[in-house]
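Our preliminary data section would be incomplete without showing what the modeling component actually yields. Below, a chain of 536 amino acids is followed by its predicted structure, encoded as tokens that our downstream tools consume directly.
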Amino acid sequence: MSVAESVSVAARRVVPRSIATYAYLLVLVIVAASVMVFFNFTAEDAYITYRYAENLVNTGALVYNLGEPINAMTSPLHAALSAALFYMTGHTVLGNKILALVLLVLSTGLVGYRFRNDPPLQLLAIVLILTPPAMVLWTLGGLETPLLLFLATLAVFLASRPPPFSLNSLGGLFLLAGLAFVTRYDSILFFFPVMLYGAWKARSARHVRIAVPLAALLPAAWLGVSYFYYGDLLPTSFYVKTPNGTLSTLLYNGIYVLAYLFYVGIVPALGLPLVLIGFKRRWVDLLSRHFRNLWWLYVGLLLELAYSLTIATHHMMFSFRSLVPYLPATVVLVVDLVSRAAETSAVDLSSRRILPRFLGFLLFLTMFQVYQTAYTYDHSVNGISTIGEYRSVGVREYGKFTGILEQQAFDIERHWNQTHGDRQRLPRVLTYAAGVLPYTFRESYVYEKLVSYRHCHQRYQQGRYADYLHILAPRQGSIAEQLPEPESHYALISSYEMLFDGSLQQFLVYYNPAPEDHNLTAKIYEPCRQREDDGE
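Predicted structure:
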């Protein structure tokens, strides 16, 4: 290579790296602003896990209602980590947010490291991961999402390591699969093909025999605890929010999944290879080589997408929660395809001719995500998707909603202390939301479909047994429909109202002066004690 050519190549490399630095700073500022906007958002269901975690520290039992081993946890590993955070810091909610941000940074760093030798592609990966509002929302939302996201991303990083694939790499990959299973059961769909690929890559039956127990240890231990302590292998959410495979559900969720792929930027980014290659025959060879190299990742992601068709729009799955943990892995696929397309078409993304257009695309994509972030905050936690839960509840309004639940917990606690402060048992509260209110009023027993679920399904008019009935009207039905006795039988002790999800809602707490004896047994599988006139 001549001196002139060397100088030309060096100049081309300096320009994109200097421009990339400013681009990284812009993305960092935008993401930091998103974190500030969403920082106070915590999903209502997260407080279910937090109550379990703090009970474990305070009482030594991983239970929701003291004395009742009922498993309403979708993520036992998250509960264990939350207990550790509470034990070390005393701040479960804040500790989770800080840990989640650290995990997001680490996950982004792993993907960025994969494309470290090509700044434009590295920048594309970072924009696709960090700028979608769904990513920041669920990083700060308090659930297990950022933990599973980190485990999945780290697994992809380990599986992508060049040969030889050592025993340590294989063991680490299998251990991550075990950790992911106790983070969310359905993660096995993603991790199983990744483990198969790792086992094939190791080319050693002895290494596989050593690694398999590492994958099975934690799942087997937890399933043993679930069966012998909680009385069921599955959490109560499986029965209350069972995956649905009807054709109408599959089609509805399919539209939602397609919306996810578009709104997080995956579909727009897939247009880059088309621009680079066009409609030439080289596509067949390009896709063939791409799939042969990353088939295991394709299979894992497609299995998760298929499962999402059954649950993607269930309660508390808004803002693409079921799919967000696998966004960095999806970004690896997309950016790798863009890289191969650029190589096949002999296009240098860092050249002075191509780079401005490429950066223009990234700027457009970033501004689109900024708009979505503002919309998510002001209008809908589900983003601009036309379907899904909470279409008219923005992050700001959701914060008011949880604030009312917290205040009603204080109202119940104050009333109970004034009325029955010398009673020996805990007050029994019937609620439609088992998170914020019960977490705030720790000294309470809670009736709710997840945390007091029984296989006998005999929860007919459960409000008869509660001291307090916490209802939301008309969203959960009329007041008369939610009270088992005439309204005059109760005393209204707490009342708030707000525009919630597009309509005026009343948040009410009624005091029951004469509750019947508690009818639920301690074990999930034992029959319920039932009134003679209840029936099935």
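The first helix runs from residue 3 to 38. Residues 3-378 form one domain. Preliminary results of this kind motivate Aim 1 of the renewal.
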